[in-house]
Every structure is written in C-alpha cells, then in structure tokens.
Design goal:
There is one protein chain. The strands form two sheets. Strands 2, 4, 5, 6, 8 and 9 form a six-stranded mixed beta sheet that branches. Strands 1-3-7 form a three-stranded antiparallel beta sheet, with no helix packed on it. It is α+β, with helices and mostly antiparallel strands. The protein is built from four helices and nine strands, in the order H-E-E-E-E-E-E-E-E-E-H-H-H. It starts with a helix and ends in a 10-residue tail after the last helix. Keywords: Endoplasmic reticulum, Membrane, Signal, Transmembrane, Transmembrane helix. It comes from Linnemannia gamsii. The chain crosses the membrane at residues 156-176. InterPro entries: TRAP_alpha (IPR005595). Is probably involved in a pathway contributing to genomic integrity.
Length: 229
C-alpha cells in the first residue's frame, strides 16, 4: 500500500513538473520580484505570526503585448521538502492589466499563525495573455522565517487587568491587617467628685448667673404701706 501511494505521488508530481516546464517555455516575458515588510538585505525575509504581512509583488513586462495578472496563490511548506505542504495560503484575484514594457506593483497579504522557525514559501501568479491563454509565473520560491509578534507595553486591556488585580490584592491586604490588629479599648475619663464646699459655691454662682436677666426694679422687695386706723 505504501509503495502504491509513493508511486502515485511521484507520477502526479512529475506530471505537474512537465506541465509547468512546458508552460514556462511559452510563457510571456515577465520579470517578477518581491519586497517583504521590514526586509534586510542578505537575510531571510521575516513574517510575523498572526499579523497581516503585506508583500509587494513587482511585475515587469518586457514583451510587446499587454498581459493580465489573474490571481496570485501561495503555499507554506517544510524548508527541507517543498512537497510537504504545511498550509495553502489565500488566493487573491486581481484581473489587473500589465501594460507592454510596463511595471505593475500588486500587494499580497500573508496572514498565518505558526511557531517561530524557518519554512519554505512558494508564490505563483496566474497570468493571461492577449489570446486569453493562461500562463503560470513563479514569483517566489525560497525560505522565510516566522517570528512571534512583539508585545506592546501600552495595552489598555492589560493595564486595566493589572489595576484590577492590584486593587484585589490591596483589599485582601487591608482585610488581613484589620483582622490581625488587636482591638483597642476606649478609656473613659472619670470626673472627680466635688466636695460639699465646691458644690455650694457652684450653686451660688449659677444662682447669680440666673438672676442677671431680671430687671433691677423687680429684684427690690415691695414696701408694705401701713394704714392708719
């Protein structure tokens, strides 16, 4: 069973290779280059995992007739075996005309979550000539490196989460502090008892204060008039 599967796979790959070679022999004169985001010359292009990475595909028509870029497709495979495909990328349809002796720049977005490591990337364009014949054009067939996205320190959700957690821990700390602190008893000051002399002096003082509002003519006792018999 294993030998049959291997034979079928070899036959299919061979047929695709022959078809690609024959198509390339009669393919239009097109030069293609790519520009990856934040690319550094001499280094493997970097793709950020989970982000939308916009790749510029630059077409140069060296022929004398107009062409049309129908669509661009791509695959991600193991770097040591491009037949071992990890994932097929999204196919983008354009239908854009590439003028004779002209240049055309089209964006191709790669968005895929993958662990940080090196993989193989293949990008192909399906083009149409003036006779409405389709031609495959190889855009990119080399390695790229996936990397993890850089976490930003300014993240409102994370800041809110940190503040919430800090508030919870502060409340727990205050509760434990109140529970462990000893109870303080309030001391009540006792007023010393007054001696009889002090009490009498205080009453006399209050009596004087109470009579201050009485008019002077009411304080004098009325005279008693004796009638003669």
């Amino acid at each position: 069973m294993f030998g049959l599967k291997s034979t079928l796979k070899a036959l299919v790959c061979g047929a695709l290779l022959l078809a690609s070679v024959s198509a390339q022999d009669s393919a239009p004169n097109v030069a293609v280059s790519t520009e990856f985001p934040n690319a550094i010359a001499g280094l493997t292009p970097n793709i950020v995992s989970g982000d939308t990475n916009s790749v510029k595909v630059i077409f140069k028509n060296t022929g004398k007739t107009d062409l049309k870029v129908h669509l661009i497709v791509g695959t991600v495979a193991e770097s040591d075996d491009y037949n071992n495909i990890i994932r097929n990328l999204t196919a983008y349809k354009y239908g854009t005309t590439l003028k004779a002796d002209g240049t055309l720049i089209l964006p191709y977005a790669i968005k895929m979550e993958h662990a940080s490591r090196e993989v193989g990337l293949t990008l192909m364009a399906d083009m149409i000539d003036s006779n409405k014949k389709h031609f495959p054009v190889l855009i990119y067939n080399s390695t790229i490196t996936f990397s993890e996205p850089v976490q930003s320190w300014i993240d409102l959700q994370l800041i809110f989460l940190y503040v919430l957690i800090a508030g919870i821990f502060a409340a727990i700390g205050m509760f434990i502090k109140d529970a462990m602190a000893p109870e303080t008893k309030k001391t009540v000051k006792k007023t010393p008892a007054m001696t009889p002399e002090e009490r009498e002096a205080a009453l006399e003082k209050m009596k004087v204060l109470d009579e201050d509002w009485i008019p002077e003519h009411h304080k004098k006792s009325p005279r008693v008039v004796k009638r003669r018999s």
